[in-house]
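Dear support,

I submitted the protein below through the web form. The confirmation email said the job was done, but the results page showed an empty box. After a refresh the structure appeared. I'm attaching both so you can tell me whether what I see now is the final result or a partial one.
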Amino acid sequence: MKKIIIALVIVLVAAAVVVFGASWHFSNQLLFPKPYTCQEDHFVYCGGASQLGIPYEDVEFKNAENLTLRGWYVPAKASKKAIIMVHGITADRREGLRWVKALHGAGYNLLLFDLRNHGKSDKSPTGMGYAEKKDVMAAVEYVQKVRGNERVGVFGVSLGGATAIQAMAEDSRILAGFFEASYAHLGDLLAQIAKRDFSLPRFPIIPSVLFVYRMRGAMDPARMNPEDYIGKISPRPVYIIHCDKDNYTEFSHAERLFAAAREPKAFWAASCDKHARAWQSNPALAEKKVKDFFAAYVK
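What the results page shows now:
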């Protein structure tokens, strides 16, 4: 009997070590994501804004936490309307470049910037949108107070979409939001990734990951779920787009976001099987949708 108890204790301790180790590792990936190696099939323009052949400026501004955020400002002639482009986790400002020619040609000033802990902006633990919403609000302040724009929209991709949803719910200066490949619920996303990529069960791994993440980052994961915020945006409009076979954030997240959103709202299920590739699925159609949306609400 004693041997059985000892063996059981050993198994339980080993299991606890494995769970804690996995939790520490995965929380580390959330807090301090490794930079993405740019691939042209995703970003299209890996060389930066100079590849577009459109005049731009290197800019920087501070957020409410005194972090310096850096990016590019692409001015349009005689325009007082702007679109803020918000990139995904591990990515940087280059992710939005594929959309710039269409939006700039439609008369919008554009701000593409690196969120905290990404690109050339100051380092600070990644907050899965809950912290980064302050970066988006600072971007709104910059394009309005420094650049003189009167009307502002936001375009967020993946984490950038989750971030922009949370920012827009709290900042009425943002008139319209276009969100691509955002997740609806952080815990559900992590559980899907754990099962798909590592064959790990939701319990006890995901609750443990979120607990360790909360302790290390001093941030509450329960307050990082875009589906809890998107309904608060109305009567300002939202447009949700998602690859119908997204290989990273399941299509169901887009459906949940659309269900939680209130009118006016629109939805496009793009025909693509990789994460955040709606533009690549049909550039002409994708650009028409984004231009028509912002033309109707940021004019």
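Response: this is the final, complete result; the empty box was a page-load delay. Residues 2-31 form the longest helix (30 residues).
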